[in-house]
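pinned: reference chain
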Amino acid sequence: MEEVKQGVRGAIDMTRGSPTRLILRFSLPLLVGNIFQQLYNMVDSVVVGRFVGSSALTAVSTGFPIIYLLSSLFIGFSVGATIMIAQYIGAGDRAAVSRTVDTIYSALLLAILPLTILGVVVCAPLLTLIRVPAEAYDQARVYCMVVLAGIIGSLGYNLNAGILQGLGDSKTPLIFLAVACGINVVLDLLFVIAFHWDVFGVALATIIAQFSSWVFGIFFINRKYPFVHIRFFQMKLDRPLLGQVLRLGIPSAIQECQFSLGILIMQALINGFGNAFAAGFGAANKIDTFAFMPIQSFSTATTTYVGQNIGAGELERVRKGARRALVLGTLVCAAISAVVVPLRRPLLMLFNTEPDVVAAGEAYLTRVLSTMFILAMMFIVNAVLRGAGATTVPMASSILSLWLVRVPVAWLLASSFGPESLYWAYPIGWSVGLVISAAVYLRGRWKGKGVVTPGG
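pinned: its structure tokens
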């Protein structure tokens, strides 16, 4: 087993050493990569917000949840792949890792055409359903259709990242994102400022950048990790392994999908208060996403850490790592909130300087960022359960906290106390989700959910 782990060049063996140090070491490249990811997403918003107008900013902001909704149908499978690969690496089964990669790439090639067609067809009805302001509708439709037509680049990148994270390699996806970020920034400025292609320009820049990053990633993986060689035209679908990927991936896909639907419902509520309020929410949401990236990185690192240690049969290391990750997440959240909340106004003005837009964004940031530590705790507990193979629990807690709590509470608060009050629904929903996930973790039934037999 040890020879197998040492043979994965550039990867981290998370079954030995300090859990805190390992999680931090794995998280830092993910954090830098997430910064690149968010930077090139933010560039889209900054460029159209400053050089096109607030309606274009609304278009890009409201288009994102629709794009994420459709891509999440497949992204969950990359989560399943990460869990399986991490557990197989922990157990020392390199052949199973190779078969898993072949299987998930075969599934991608089979699913991409119908998924692309579905996205292009349904984006306009979904924009109508969420009540996009009239002045932003046409631009939002263009943005969604272009990005969804090229969605294979985004899905391929996420699949590559999932494979590498399962191997214990969080550095290589950073290279992919750096390439994508550089391409996207240059093309955004070229297409919008020089060519005046407006929202179409930023959408086209996005898909070119994502596709380039995906293709570059394939060549890089094949060179660095030859035992997981990605073959485009040699379909190898291992049905038992596909069944395991589906068992682990479908709950994650449902979780991501319903999360996207929840965003759409919230977006419909927010859009009903006018273009300025919607634009302010969009800008603040970008900042919020940026601020939460360290927790997202800790969560991904925790999933890989737990997966490898479950595969190696190290349950005590799993529990120790969970405690350390919770402490890290809570402390980092407190530090981020202490910095971002006082600077919220100048940060929002990077996107748009209209007073109503800035005021709407401030209402979001003051309420959501100050309570973000609750979301961090929920994410990390869910990451532990997911890494152990108990993927249905994060799905269930997410669904219950969103649909039974956050969405109805948001509508109730908005109708009773005004639009700015609806954001208190976020921490209320997170608290319910945390209680559910923590109760399951403490009961300990997740310990028998692994996909491999340790030492087998």
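why pinned: Residues 54-91 form the longest helix (38 residues). Residues 19-448 form one domain.
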